[in-house]
Amino acid sequence: MRTNESEEMYLETILLLRGRKSSVRSVDIVEELGYAKSSVSRAVNLLINKGYVEMNDGGDLILTQSGKQKAANVYERHCVITKLLRSIGADEELAESNACRIEHVVSEEMFAIIKEFIHKKSM
Description:
By secondary structure, this protein is mainly alpha-helical. The protein has helices at residues 5-20, 26-33, 37-49, 65-87, 92-102, 108-122, and strands spanning 53-55, 61-63. The chain has a two-stranded antiparallel ribbon. Strand 1 (53-55) and strand 2 form a beta hairpin.
């Protein structure tokens, strides 16, 4: 089981915001997640220290290659698990909210099984 849900949430949020906006700053994360500015500031600094994010002089947050990869993996889990939950009858809101939690704790082995199931079901 993976253990850093918070780290993954921040990376996924930066990735998704970057898809909608040309510039992503800490305040955008505050607005998106509804977290306190101090919490976001601390988390961003941890992501910078781990080499997942860089911040330019204007405060723009940029995912590094390893940050992009990790964020993309989290987002893929989210999308696949949402599809699974929708396929067994959950409405969109219920599937999304539960996928958002499950994506952080599902093992790589279990995710591979889910992904294969969804792939076969889509054919």
